[in-house]
Amino acid sequence: FTSIDFLLKYSEPLRQLVKSGNLEIQGGVYHLATGRVEFMGRSPRQAQLLASDSSLPPSLQALPIRTTTDKTVPPKEALRLLKEGNDRFAVGAAVAGKISSDMRKALVDEGQAPHTAIIGCADSRAPLETVFDAMPGDIFVLRNAGNTCTHSEGSMVGSLEFCLGALNTKMVMVLGHTACGAIKGATATYLQSKAGTKPQVNKALDALLVGLSSVAGKASEELGRFATEQDIVAHTIKLNVFHTIDFLLQYSSLIREKVAAGEVEIQGGIYDLETGRVEFLGESPNQASLITSGAAMPPSIA
């Protein structure tokens, strides 16, 4: 359906033919094992897309550069930009990267005004600007192994406060990803500890994995005793996204106040390494209780 939607969204001639009834675009899946085709019919979004305006395919469009001369982007608009950018990336129609010397100069002279701040994993397979087909100046990026605030609380929280305060960004996205090595290591550390083997903390990586293992423990409890290690890893990836969001709300009065006032939104997501798609998870289930909590400093600087 993604391919059908792309055709209807970016081709005015095709839209007109479908509207007039002279053309139908339907989908199907060929099953190699049986030799049969599963006929799926029209896209569920056909009516909506037929009513849309004509636009050029993304590969023929030029994305603008955001600077301080542009209006502040509201949270819902920023989320839309993220979703559209990821759609372009996932279907191989990314356009970012076409930047001129004048654009670079504008970013220097006029300053940055990112529409979104993202806390993501340092994994090289999940390049955040690329995943959202973003231009320089679009996204304020913070990365570490496991997209966590467990150990780099001070720098991560402080950097995010700078983005929301000084740069006036309104959307925060905490993005995990499938097959996360840090989460796999943390899950293994948790299971070893559960089996009676005390984790050795001889280097910074060990401390990171021990810090994340509590999230793996919570995932294990929620899934029950029949969950496999792979099941726990997958659930921990999701819980860790919300764990990071909760940390930000708990230990930053600035972030908490802006979220409570409706000025800023913090949402989570999981990037699928295989499909290129981001699953948008929304806000933390604990947000309502956390924004009414008292101010506290991050443990590392308290």
UniProtKB/TrEMBL annotation:
Matching entries from Gene3D superfamilies are given as: Carbonic anhydrase (3.40.1050.10)
Is Nuclease tagged as a keyword? no
Query: Which reaction is the catalytic activity of this chain?
Result: hydrogencarbonate + H(+) = CO2 + H2O
Q: Which domain of life is it from?
A: Eukaryota
Q: Does the keyword Ribosomal protein apply?
A: no
Among InterPro entries, the record links this protein to:
Carbonic_anhydrase, Carbonic_anhydrase_sf
Q: Which SMART domains match?
A: Pro_CA
- Enzyme Commission identifier(s): 4.2.1.1
Give UniProt keywords alphabetically: Lyase, Metal-binding, Zinc
Q: Sorted alphabetically, which SUPFAM superfamilies does this protein's record hold?
A: beta-carbonic anhydrase, cab
Q: A Pfam family for this UniProt protein? A: Pro_CA
Task: Name what cofactor the protein needs.
Answer: Zn(2+)
Please report which protein family the annotation says this sequence is part of. Answer: Belongs to the beta-class carbonic anhydrase family.
Q: What does this protein do?
A: Reversible hydration of carbon dioxide.
Task: Give the protein name, as stated in the record.
Answer: Carbonic anhydrase
Q: Which organism is it from?
A: Durusdinium trenchii
